[in-house]
Recover the amino acids of this structure.
């Protein structure tokens, strides 16, 4: 797939660590110029330095994706520095746990602002640029298996993730005629810097995942690069679940 991303420019949000970083890293390794965003500017710069040290072409841009000015800046920087925008990966998101009966409005609004508003308007701003260029493009949302199955204290988070899958489906009629595909990935349990700090996380998900292990960030990034490549040109409006078969059987973590 290395030839597919040469002379392509990608935006990846929430890419300082974890899944977003791995997607940005793999895109850069396969020839794409990457605008790497993270809420933490220092983390974005550190991640970009790691990718650049391996020969990747990357530009760090810090900022909160719930801020529309930040999203427009990502698009503007991509075009100003690399000449075009071909790929947008709305990976940035937050997870908040809470009892439905006690879940506060402020937490709800913050979750929706980042997970839904940030993803929707990144797609909108990116698609406007792609439409202007007239050369098509790829948009990818990051959903979750919690958008498919119930998880205790994650109803609100799961709602936002299910919403992203419907957004991918809903944008097909407007974007397909422009040569822009829009899809989502729904990761299951994945080993990241954050989840590795959860006591027993790897052991629990190893037991209840049919493949015998939780996913790695590389597993998710490999799926993402497929959906971002020309190999997936006839796939749009879809969600690819990457969970080792967990949603097929759905045992709850104990």
């Amino acid at each position: 797939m290395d030839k597919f991303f040469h002379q392509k420019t990608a935006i990846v949000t929430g890419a300082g660590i974890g899944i977003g970083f791995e997607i940005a890293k793999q895109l850069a390794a396969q020839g794409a110029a990457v605008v790497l965003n993270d809420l933490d500017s220092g983390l974005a710069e550190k991640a970009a330095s790691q990718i650049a040290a391996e020969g990747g072409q990357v530009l760090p841009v810090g900022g909160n994706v719930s801020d529309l000015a930040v999203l427009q800046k990502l698009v503007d920087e991509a075009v100003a520095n690399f000449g075009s925008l071909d790929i947008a990966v709305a990976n940035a998101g937050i997870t908040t746990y809470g009892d439905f009966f006690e879940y506060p409005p402020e937490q709800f609004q913050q979750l929706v602002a980042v997970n839904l508003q940030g993803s929707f308007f990144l797609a909108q701003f990116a698609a406007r640029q792609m439409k202007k260029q007239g050369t098509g493009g790829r948009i990818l949302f990051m959903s979750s298996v919690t958008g498919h199955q119930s998880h205790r204290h994650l109803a609100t988070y799961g709602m936002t993730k299910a919403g992203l899958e419907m957004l991918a489906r809903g944008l097909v009629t407007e974007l397909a005629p422009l040569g822009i595909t829009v899809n989502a990935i729904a990761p299951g349990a994945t080993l990241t810097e954050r989840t590795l700090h959860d006591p027993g996380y790897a052991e629990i998900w190893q037991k209840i995942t049919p493949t015998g292990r939780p996913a790695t960030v590389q597993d998710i990034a490999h799926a993402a690069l497929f959906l971002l490549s020309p190999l997936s040109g006839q796939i749009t409006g879809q969600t690819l679940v990457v969970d080792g078969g967990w949603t097929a059987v759905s045992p709850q973590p104990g």
Remarks:
- The chain has a mean pLDDT of 95.
- The domain at 2-241 is CATH 3.40.50.720 (Rossmann fold).
